[in-house]
Design a protein that fits this description.
By secondary structure, the chain is α+β, with helices and mostly antiparallel strands. The protein has seven helices and twelve strands.
C-alpha cells in the first residue's frame, strides 16, 4: 500500500500524453499541469493544518473559521477489548484554542491513534479552501527549503485547491466509459474493487458504521483510492458532493453519483488537486 501511495500515474492510464518531468509523492498526474491526491484528506493532516496555520496566518479568528463542529464525528465502533459499542464523539476531542500552542506540530487533534488516518469530515467548503491555502504556502516553504539539485524534481509553482467537477470525474473514471465502468474499475471482482458503502456493513452485528481509513478501500484503474464510496467529496464549482459514501447503497456510490451539499456531515470529506501555475 505504501508503494501505491507514492506512485504516479502511467502515461497510458488516462489515455493522454503526460509530461512526467516532475514527481509529486502522494498524487496521481492527470495531465501536464494537474495532479490529484491519491487519498482523501485525513484527520491527522487536517490537524497539522490547524496548528501550523493558526500560528502563521496571523488571523486571530482562525480557529473559529477552521474548526469543524465539536461533535463532528457521530460514528460508532465496536471495541473488542472493552466489549461494548463506543461512540467516537465520546472518545474524540479537537484540542481547544488555548491548548493548541502547547501541542507538538503534528497533533492539533487529540484522538485514539487509529482514527488519525480516517477522512476528515463535517467541514464546510470555506474550511476546505482554507486548508488549500495553507497547503499552497506549505508546499512553497517545502520547495524553498530544498537544495538546488533536489528542486529539479518538483514543480516550482504549485497551487492546491478543490477539484472541479470535470477534474473529479476525469480522475474517478480513469477516462473509462462511466456507463460501462461505473466505479472506474475494469474488473469489479478483483481485490479493492468494491466501494465502501452501506452493503459493506451488512451482517455486521457490531453496529459498525463509519468510513474506512483513507488508505484502504476501492482502488480505481488509475490507482486512486475511494473516489467512489467511503465519504462523498466536495468539488470547487458545484453545490454537489460526488461519489457517495459509506452510508449510501452501492448504486449511489458511482462516479456520476451526486448529492446536494446542504450542510457539513460526517459522511462528507474532500481531496485536493495541485496545479502547476505559469
Amino acid at each position: 500500500m505504501l508503494v501505491l501511495i507514492f506512485c504516479l500515474l502511467s502515461l497510458q492510464s488516462l489515455g493522454q500524453s503526460i509530461n512526467k518531468k516532475y514527481s509529486l509523492p502522494g498524487f496521481v498526474q492527470l495531465n501536464d499541469t494537474l495532479f490529484i491526491s491519491i487519498v482523501e484528506l485525513d484527520i491527522r493532516e487536517y490537524g497539522r493544518f490547524l496548528v501550523i496555520w493558526r500560528e502563521r496566518s496571523g488571523d486571530s479568528d482562525f480557529m473559529r473559521k477552521a474548526l469543524p463542529s465539536p461533535d463532528y464525528l457521530g460514528w460508532t465502533y465496536w471495541d473488542n477489548y472493552r466489549k461494548e459499542l463506543l461512540t467516537y464523539s465520546d472518545l474524540y476531542e479537537i484540542v481547544d484554542k488555548d491548548r493548541l500552542t502547547n501541542q507538538p506540530k503534528d497533533t492539533a487533534i487529540s484522538f485514539i491513534g487509529w482514527i488519525s488516518n480516517w477522512p476528515v469530515v463535517n467541514v464546510t467548503k470555506q474550511q476546505a479552501n482554507l486548508y488549500c491555502e495553507f497547503r499552497t504556502k506549505d508546499y512553497e516553504f517545502f520547495y524553498n527549503s530544498q537544495k538546488k539539485k533536489k528542486k529539479e524534481k518538483y514543480p516550482a509553482n504549485l497551487v492546491f485547491r478543490l477539484p472541479t467537477t470535470n477534474e473529479w470525474i476525469m480522475a474517478a473514471s480513469s477516462m473509462l466509459d462511466t456507463a460501462t465502468y461505473k466505479f472506474g474499475v475494469v474488473d469489479y471482482n478483483q481485490k479493492y474493487s468494491k466501494p465502501v458503502c452501506a452493503e459493506t456493513f451488512i451482517g455486521d452485528s457490531t453496529g459498525q458504521s463509519h468510513p474506512y481509513s483513507v488508505a484502504y478501500g476501492q482502488i480505481n484503474k488509475s490507482g486512486i483510492i475511494n473516489m467512489c464510496g467511503n465519504v462523498a467529496e466536495l468539488v470547487s464549482n458545484s453545490d454537489f458532493v460526488y461519489g457517495g459514501s459509506y452510508t449510501d447503497s452501492s448504486k449511489n456510490c458511482t462516479i456520476t453519483s451526486r448529492q446536494l451539499f446542504v450542510e457539513p456531515k460526517n459522511n462528507i470529506g474532500f481531496r485536493v488537486v495541485a496545479v502547476i501555475r505559469n
